[in-house]
Every structure is written in C-alpha cells, then in structure tokens.
Design goal:
Elements: E1 4-7, H1 12-23, E2 29-32, H2 40-49, H3 54-57, H4 63-67, H5 77-86, E3 95-98, E4 101-104
GO molecular function, one term: arsenate reductase (glutaredoxin) activity
Pfam families: ArsC
EC number: 1.20.4.1
Amino acid sequence: MSVTVYHNPACGTSRSVLELVRNAGIEPNIILYLKTPPSRDTLAELARKDPLGARDLLRTKEKLCAELGLDKPDVTDTQILDAIAAHPALLNRPVVVTPKGVKACRPADTVLALL
C-alpha cells in the first residue's frame, strides 16, 4: 500500500501517526511539509479527496489562523487553500494519503481507517 504522510517531526500527533503506519508494516513516503511545502494544486487535490474538504486541512489552533481571519464561518475553501499555500504552518498535521482516502489525522488513531 502506498502511504504518504505530510509530517512535522516536532508534533507529537504527527510522530504518533507515523508510528502507527510503521506498526502496520508500511514504510510511508514522508513529506516534511515545512521544508518542502505542497503546491497550491496539491493542496486543492488533497482537499478534493478529503471528505471534510479544505477546512480539515486548516490548522485552526495556529495563531496565524485567527490573525488572517480564517476561523470565520464564511471563509471559502479557496481562501483557506491560498493561505495554507502561502503559510505552510497552517497545514493541519499530519495529513495522510492512502488509496482509501485523505485525512488530517487528529487524533492519531484516525489514521487506522485509512490503512
């Protein structure tokens, strides 16, 4: 199974998800998204495949989210994806991609449904 993890090694949840994937016998493709941010087109594709859409990809706990007004209910998917593309720290981590779908895996055990 092909698995990609958009990973932040400083995040405990991201490390836990990576451990769960590896415990399932899978060595994922790891993208350190703060060093190698996904393109705007990639973000749009992830949002399209995530059942919860662009909002699921947005890290609402990030201070910048409120500063940019992205926490308001009338913010569009386009605005969210543009903001994440411009500020990769706004990506809700970790985002996991498998043949079964795409999801921001918080809490960590939500990754099990994708494996």
